[in-house]
Amino acid sequence: MEDLKTFLINKVLLFESDTLPSETEKVLQQVRRDKTNVPVIHISSNTSSIIAGSDKTFNAVKVYVEENEPTTLTVRVGCSGPANYEPMVCVQMPGKNKLFFRNITEEKVEPLLNGVFHNDINEDDLLGQTGSKGFEFWPGISFINELPFFANQKRIVLGNCGCYDPESIEEYIARGGYSTFVKTIRHYTFEEVCDIIERSGLRGRSGGGYPTGLKWKQALNTSSNARYLICNAKESDPGSFSDRTILESDPHRLIEGMAIAAYAIGASNAILYLKSGSDYARMRLQTAISMAREFGIIGHNIYSSGYNLDISLRQEPGAFVCGEETALINSLEGKRGMPQLKPPYPTTSGLSGKPTVINNVETLMNIPLIMKNGPEWFRSIGTETSPGTKIFAITGRGRMSGVIEVEMGTTLGSVLEDIVDGIKDGKEFKAIQLGGASGSFITAENLDTPVDFDAMKEKGFGMGAGGFVVIDETSCMVDLVRYYMEYLRNESCGKCIPCREGTGRMLEILESVIRKPVNEDSGTTLERFKGVMQLETISSVMKDTSLCGLGQTAPNPFVSALKNFREEFEEHIFDRKCRANVCRGLRTFLIDVEKCTGCTVCAGKCPVNAIYGTRLQPFFIVEDKCIGCGVCFDVCKFSAVIVK
Amino acid sequence: MAADLDIILKKYKHGRREDLIPLLQEIQAENGYLSEESIVRVGGHLGLSTTKIFGLATFYDQFRFIPSGKVHLKICHGTSCFMNGSQSIIDKIKEELKISPGQTTRNGNFSFDIVTCLGGCFHGPVIMVNGEYQIHIRAEQVPALITKLKFIIDND
């Protein structure tokens, strides 16, 4: 083991030329397990696959292998993207192409491996094969890269995810990792690195799209005895998990990116600010950081360049607003995570008053690639003003789900059609919610918008952290807006009044729209109408006067839903109807006299005793008593309860 | 417990303000919650008033001030789980256990929290029972699950 370490440091990391000699390449191939004499089984292992049961799959594979094929290697790798195919298993027989299988739960392991080892492959769970020259082709099996989910992506940043063992630094180095960092600190000055990044046109991937190179230069040009680099891995939007997938699948590239960024701004301290509750990612990062320290990538006088770097891990204690730069710094200083007025910007006065650069995970993941391939290469991808790629975390009602990466300039429609493959269960598409809790809804007519910072801004959308929620007709927009508003009300820090009071009031009004009133007298109805008319005013006041991004963007879901789904709001307010039958307060239940057998199940379950009748005779619901909970609808075996 | 606290406090011997949150996180990881005693001790160690620390700890969602139950449930309320009906699961659990999020039942058996995303969006609604994931949960399965857990606690 020690030999491999010195070999990797001397022959790979410190090797001056770009092309390695063939003997070195041969050893690296062994480390990468490209050419092995034994079968290799890769099992995806990250949060989303563990939830799907990959830990149990891993154990089952281990047991099977020990009994039948003891020479086989079993390796845990990161996630390669499609969450609905988890747990994914990849089998590589010696000298043959890799085979990918989907949804391999514990009980499927034995038949699957029996099939693979005895050349009788089960086609049902098979996804496809991948391979390159020199490997034997499996006849009659399609290539995984030809699946629409992968064919329409451009996986650059995610290139390593799912390919290697995230807990092995040796494998990362064998895949060309860390050598860029070592070259950078040995051959470039701080300014040169900033220049390269500025020329590449990389823009911050957290939503604003601020040029990264410019940000770095501002920090570099502020004279100070210490500077800080913070990686913002606090991805707190409900339903976005792209950063977490990256952290769990490719932690080393992030550390390399952080190290290069810290070098570029002359910072010797870097902090990785992690989301609370992501314990698996924390564990992987801790391993990665301590391994990097062992290999001398973090530490004192790194490879005799005279540059010192320390990376520490801090876990955020649970507040949405801490994603905002100044709030993040406050929380790192041991204070309440409340935003501050800008300027001064963190690049001039940030953590402990020192210049601080805060970049998010996706931005930093691009850095090693740009330094390796040059700014011109990066400019050749994507659009003129937004070069590169963008990562989305796809959730909701799409047929496919997971983390994807597309080239900038791809339209949202093609992401939805080609990669997500339309809507589940043949339902009708309603909207895409882009950019987390305070993002906008994008309807069918705007699906031709390209993924591009400026084009999006022009239409008033934001990409945020890359949450991409597919919404179909089974969701009620008013209820969804209320859900987002409830979330933002809970997460508002309470420092400035427009946000604290505004979110609370908006939630109150939205709740009055979907709640069943105690009585429909003119007073309560009037109050409801008055409230609804105020919603738009509150929105604009919040947008103009809130202190930070959270408050300014909090009305976004409401404003865009009202613009696109006005008739749905009107139905809720005037007709007291919810077309998706989601809003409980507005549902009325009836019993179909023809179908009811008088089994008394519903009457027994009704929490308010609103169902009356005689046994074996049709029952009926007293509308005044009914609270619309829907228990009767759920328990009825004869579908005799009708929702209206 | 006091001995544990001493060990943790010793790690942060410089006692700076920026150590406050990691210190509290470590105490919570060790004990499961922040007791009054530990907050007073941390205040003494860092030279901060107890009210300041309490004010900070209540600002963040992560900190608890009462011990969690023998069974701790985490219910995902992210967008995807919400669209798949996590609200009715939360209502059902509230109804079954007769507690609100962040509380613990009187006999100390159950506690539950609502979290924003557990990361299993495709398999929603997801709940986490003492670190074990349960996927595709429906509201009508909740009473049976609670009964099963009660049975396990009673026979432990």
Task: Please outline what is shown here.
Chain A is an alpha/beta fold and 644 residues long.
Describe what this molecule looks like in 3D.
The complex is a heterodimer of chains A (644) and B (156). Helix content of chain A is 41%, strand content 13%. Chain A is α/β, with parallel strands linked by helices. Chain A folds into 5 domains: 25-147, Glutaredoxin (3-Layer(aba) Sandwich); 177-379, NADH-ubiquinone oxidoreductase 51kDa subunit (Rossmann fold), CATH 3.40.50; 389-472, Ubiquitin-like (UB roll); 477-575, NADH-ubiquinone oxidoreductase 51kDa subunit, iron-sulphur binding domain (de novo design (two linked rop proteins)); 587-643, Alpha-Beta Plaits, CATH 3.30.70. In chain A, strands 2-1-3-4-5 form a 5-stranded mixed β-sheet, with helices on one face. In chain A, strands 11-10-14-12-13 form a 5-stranded mixed β-sheet, sandwiched between helices. A 4-stranded parallel β-sheet of chain A has the order 8-7-6-9, sandwiched between helices. The mean pLDDT of chain B is 90. Chain B is α+β, with helices and mostly antiparallel strands. Chain B has a 4-stranded mixed β-sheet with strand order 2-1-3-4, with helices on one face. Chain B folds into 2 domains: 2-59, Arc Repressor Mutant, subunit A, CATH 1.10.10; 71-154, 3-Layer(aba) Sandwich (Glutaredoxin). The two termini of chain B are 24 Å apart. The chains are: A alpha/beta (644), B alpha+beta (156). Chain A binds chain B through residues 47-48, 50-52, 83-84, 86, 236-241, 244, 276-278, 314-315, 317-320, 331-337, 393, 395-397, 401-402, 433, 437, 467, 469, 471, 474-475, 480, 483, 487, 493, 634-635, and chain B through 16-22, 24-25, 55-56, 59-63, 77-80, 82-83, 87, 115-123, 126, 133, 135, 139-140.
